[in-house]
Amino acid sequence: MSGGETGRQMSAEHLRELKPVRLAILDDHELLLDSMGSWISVNAPDFDLVLTSRTWLGLVQSHRFPTDLIFLDFQLKESISIEARVRTCRAAGMKVIVLSSFDTSDTKDRALAAGAEVFLTKSLPLQEVMAVARTVMGMPAVSEPPEGWLSPAPGTPESKSVKLSQSEKRALILYVSGMSTQEVAEKMDVQFETAKTFLRRIRQKYARAGKVASKRNDLLLRAAEDGYLE
Predict the structure, then answer these.
(1) Domain containing residue 197
(2) Do 57 and 126 belong to one domain?
(3) pTM of the prediction?
(4) Which residues contact 124 (CB under 8 A, 6 or more apart)?
(5) Which of 23, 82, 154, 167 has its CA 20 to 30 A from that of 109?
(6) What is the CATH number of the domain that holds 173?
(7) What is the pLDDT of residues 110-148, one digit of tens each?
(8) Buried/exposed 127-150: b ≥16 CB within 10 Å, e otherwise
């Protein structure tokens, strides 16, 4: 985009001069919360992640609640419905973006009918999620949000999807849960070199798809995007 910076793309230096949006995230996967928090702190200086929680009660009982914006995971282990969670946050004055690994009409409809600003799939890179968040909050753009915002309709191919074998999926899930390569090998009952090969192939496949996967936290985000953490 060209032209002035107001309402258009702005540099990270200019974003740091703005008052950041107070952001909360509710997701019951601890490692994913940590990875998202780390990414946002480095790459989204216009957002201040002031509250993360793995439980609904932990969120609403925090002295930092409410915030300006919240990312809500659609599916939690708790029995609190998505409708109740979205409506409570909206009543507290928060804008809500629902994130889910389930891309179905039912999940979208329930989230949006309850008052969520938008429904996004976890297959989106965080850069695109934050682009949508900026649009929702009426903030200057850093990058363009994904076209259409909502997840693709069934049968529509997602950009650069990565296909993993069953063994590679298993190795990925174990590795991002915190296991060492040796522990992955023992859990899968294979040789160390075999487990190492699985992880190397996973990284190569993501790299060919243009997705960062060099570190464990990178792989954790990729696993979340592809729905392997449910």
Answers:
(1) 166-225
(2) yes
(3) 0.64
(4) 146, 151, 225
(5) 23
(6) 1.10.10
(7) 899 999 999 998 888 899 999 999 999 988 776 666 655
(8) ebbbbbbbebbebbebeebbeebe
